Amino acid sequence: MIKLTDAAVAKVAKLAEKEPDKPFLRVGISGGGCNGLSYKMRFVENAKKGDILVDFGQAQVIVDSKSALYLKGTHLDYSNALISGGFKFSNPNATSSCSCGESFSV
């Protein structure tokens, strides 16, 4: 399933503090973007039936079963660099991705 680096776990935990009623980070895939599929992330109140919960201690990540097929083996990192900073997905299932790293194709 998806793996978060220590930097990503720390950032998710810090962001979750601002969303006390939404403790879970939902990571998913949707159609769109310049390469056909886009990564989506948002904080949610609870899991839905069929969701996969990945517990990183300080951070709780939820992935729906359909998105899990595309995210298997993906690493999520975070950088606070001024240029190209933010969350970055490294997805071994992607055959191509856009330069911004927010969309991909399989």
Summarize the topology:
Layout: E1 3-4, H1 6-17, E2 24-31, E3 37-44, E4 52-55, E5 60-63, H2 65-71, E6 75-79, E7 86-90, E8 96-97, E9 103-105
Parallel strand pairs: 1-6, 2-5
Antiparallel strand pairs: 2-3, 3-9, 4-5, 6-7, 8-9
Give keywords.
single chain; six-stranded mixed β-sheet; 106 residues; alpha+beta; three-stranded mixed β-sheet; 2 helices; Hypothetical Protein Aq_1857, Chain: A
Describe the structure.
The chain is an alpha+beta fold and 106 residues long. The protein has one domain: HesB-like domain (Hypothetical Protein Aq_1857, Chain: A, Sandwich). Helices cover 18% and strands 39% of the residues. The protein contains 2 helices and 9 strands. The strands form 2 sheets. It has a 6-stranded mixed β-sheet with strand order 4-5-2-3-9-8. The protein has a 3-stranded mixed β-sheet with strand order 1-6-7. Strand 8 and strand 9 form a beta hairpin. The longest helix has 12 residues. The chain is globular and about 35 Å long. The mean pLDDT is 89.
